[in-house]
Amino acid sequence: MNGWLLPVMLATPVLLLLALGIVAFVLRYQRRLLRQQEQLRQVRDASQQQALEAALLAQEEERRRIAADLHDGVGTTLAIVKLHLSTLGQPDLTQEATALLDQAISEVRRISRNLLPAALQKFGLPFALDALARTVPADGPTQVLIEQRGQPRRLDPKRELIVYRVVQELLGNGLRHAHADSISVSIDFGPDYLSLQYLDNGVGFDPAAGDTQPAPGSRTGLGLTNLRSRVAVLRGTLRHESAPGAGSRIWISFPIPYLPADQAPTLVSAL
Amino acid sequence: MPISPWLITFAEYLERASNILVLVPLGMAGWRWPHLPSALRLLACYLVFTEATLLAAALTEMYWPRWHLLVWQAFTITETLFFFRIYYLTLRVPLWRRFIVVAAPLFAAFALLDTFYLEGMHQVNAFTHVLQSALLIGLALLYFEQLLNELEVVRLEHDPLFLVSTAVVLYFSGTVLMYVFINHFLTAKDYASNQVVYTINSIVNLIQYSLFALAFWYADRKPQAPVHS
């Protein structure tokens, strides 16, 4: 046998093993890099989620503060002014001023209620949603139906507020822009989820035109951006279906842990 | 140490098997041709060229045995240029592409120098083979680096060019030592030793053709990264 054969026979497998080692290293290293990238993406998503949540909570806190200031400050001052007017004992002269003051007081109450729905804080989401439905005049151009299915239950107050805002936004957008004859919102309190279905027979919108400058008088899906932000805070999903002239349908689902009956926020006694 | 006759028979069969196995990637390339990106089409052309060279080498050995090795020396140059072009189409870093543009004529010049001056036309050009192995393994490693930098491919084992590069790394690292010593085996006129050496070549060829076949198989199953022409 040739004297060179043995070294070649021995060294070649070693070289092949080295080559295989390089390939295996590349495969493993690539997997590790992909895993790290995925972890980084998850951390980024989580921090975005936290920032979004913080922004929305700050917004709600600011609303709460303004609502309290309006109700306790401006509202009380107006009430005192009205009291002073009544003590003048000249109803003929103060009648118009008193009427204007009444109008201002009710306006302050309305704004305050919109900023922070007292019904939500006191009685919870199911009651607040009913109250929201009652705020739309029954003899208006749009018939609004808010329907609750399943077993209406209390949630964590922060979640209740977000869900309420979502319904409020859906309804507000629909009333302002859809020009619909009817709007229906159904809320399904599932075993471990809460789903919303919005349906209108209005002008609809082009879902693809969300990021473009809207033409005057046209409707875009820009309201969806706010909805998405709120839905994202509760890690929910949003799906929509619409076309110009074909109405709109929006489905939202939240994975929601309901509060046990004994942990439900207690009703405020002073109504 | 004597070599068993069964091992020699096995080596002969293995060599034939590796020559036949090339039909598998070729068939696969023909089947997937409309979906193949430029780099893989070039690889298919290289396989056709390999088969044509085998035929030309057999005819030359029969009629002009003195010039038989010249066919393989020409093949080595063309094979390297084929792979240079494949990697030129695949690699995206401009510096690496410029390196290929510069390395291709330099390699061809060195191979011609080796053929006509250093080692001559009548023996296997070991220097050229070593340089070829170093360059092509280097290009394959550059492609690995590109994959790791871009992280666009999730399953590397399904990436056709990763499979081709793996084949290149395995083939050239498995045969480089054989080519360094091949002239010693050929001059020794020891048929048994030669056959064992060719067995090494056949084994890495089998691996190479299997990986090429897999590369063609996955060619239309996964979107390829854009190639530059």
Automatic annotation (TrEMBL), chain A:
InterPro entries: HATPase_C_sf (IPR036890), HATPase_dom (IPR003594), His_kinase_dom (IPR005467), Sensor_HK_TwoCompSys (IPR050482), Sig_transdc_His_kin-like_C (IPR004358), Sig_transdc_His_kin_sub3_dim/P (IPR011712)
Pfam families registered for this protein in UniProt: HATPase_c, HisKA_3
Keywords: 4Fe-4S, ATP-binding, Cytoplasm, Iron, Iron-sulfur, Kinase, Membrane, Metal-binding, Nucleotide-binding, Phosphoprotein, Transferase, Transmembrane, Transmembrane helix, Two-component regulatory system
Broad class of enzyme this protein falls into: transferase
GO cellular component, one term: membrane
Reaction(s) catalysed by this chain's protein: ATP + protein L-histidine = ADP + protein N-phospho-L-histidine
Positions of the Histidine kinase domain: 69-258
Compartments, as annotated in UniProt: Cytoplasm
Gene3D superfamilies linked to this entry: 1.20.5.1930, Histidine kinase-like ATPase, C-terminal domain
Broad class of where this protein is predominantly found: cytoplasm
Record-annotated membrane-spanning stretches: 6-27
EC number: 2.7.13.3
Iron recorded as keyword: yes
The UniProt record lists the keyword DNA damage: no
Cofactor(s), by name: [4Fe-4S] cluster
Domain of life: Bacteria
GO MF annotation terms: 4 iron, 4 sulfur cluster binding; ATP binding; metal ion binding; phosphorelay sensor kinase activity; protein dimerization activity
PANTHER family, alphabetized: NITRATE/NITRITE SENSOR PROTEIN NARX-RELATED (PTHR24421), NITRATE_NITRITE SENSOR PROTEIN NARQ (PTHR24421:SF10)
Function: Member of the two-component regulatory system NreB/NreC involved in the control of dissimilatory nitrate/nitrite reduction in response to oxygen. NreB functions as a direct oxygen sensor histidine kinase which is autophosphorylated, in the absence of oxygen, probably at the conserved histidine residue, and transfers its phosphate group probably to a conserved aspartate residue of NreC. NreB/NreC activates the expression of the nitrate (narGHJI) and nitrite (nir) reductase operons, as well as the putative nitrate transporter gene narT.
Name used for this protein in its record: Oxygen sensor histidine kinase NreB
TrEMBL record, chain B:
Swiss-Prot/TrEMBL keywords: Membrane, Transmembrane, Transmembrane helix
Keyword Transmembrane helix found: yes
Membrane spanning stretches: 43-64, 70-87, 99-118, 130-148, 160-182, 202-219
Protein name per UniProt: Uncharacterized protein
Organism this protein belongs to: Hymenobacter persicinus
